[in-house]
Amino acid sequence: MNEKNTLIEALSEVIEKAAVSLQSAVGYVYAVGENDFYNINVKDLFKISLSALDNPDGLSRLGISPNKDIANFTQLSDLMFYTFAVRTPYLKRNPGIKASDRLITDLYNACVEKGAVDPDNFVREDFKATMKLAKSNRLEPPFNGEWFRRWVYSYGGELAEITNLNMFVLGCMDALFPLYYAELTEKIAVLLKEF
């Protein structure tokens, strides 16, 4: 395997692990809410979650079990993987990152090959449009969980019900999505500098 392929494999693996970690975070946030909704230190949950970005099992340090029904939504992990992959063109805007269009395209394609998909079009972004926007002077749109809410209300089962617990989970995810994206971008920047 040549150096470029090694880099793409390493980058796509980091993105995939971040998606699995974020999916896991949904299950843990739900479990925290189920166990002690009114006495939760959400900062601890966020801190551990973000430090476990490339270790999906890192949240097990909380000492609670994730809600398995929610944490095991396979499609959710694939969608989270896609949301990260589709935004890879914005990496070129980071002053510390030097990446060609070819590298970004190959990285996106590697993520798709590993399972980054959005078969039901919950995510409003697509790779070609993002690539075009990333080359313009327009601001990068914020990374948020709007697509996650659409997914929840379509496939989320008990998570789609309007309850205090579910609103807590959705609120936490609204905060975690941009934090995960920022942390992932930093990890990718470090990897790119190492190669």
Give the helices and strands, then pairings.
Layout: H1 3-36, H2 42-51, H3 68-71, H4 74-85, H5 101-113, H6 127-135, H7 146-155, H8 164-194
Helix pairs in contact: 1-4, 1-5, 1-8
Question: Which terms would index this structure?
Answer:
globular; 195 residues; 63% helix; 8 helices; mainly alpha; single chain
* Number of strand segments: 0
Helix content: 55-70%
What is the count of structural domains?
Answer: 1
The poorly predicted ranges are none
Describe what you observe in this structure:
- The structure is a single chain.
- With 195 residues, the chain is mainly alpha-helical.
- The chain has one domain (3-194).
- The chain has helices spanning 3-36, 42-51, 68-71, 74-85, 101-113, 127-135, 146-155, 164-194.
- It is globular.
- The two termini are 14 Å apart.
- 37% of the residues are buried.
- The model has no long low-confidence stretch (mean pLDDT 85).
Summarize the structure.
This protein is an all-alpha fold and 195 residues long. Helices cover 63% and strands 0% of the residues.
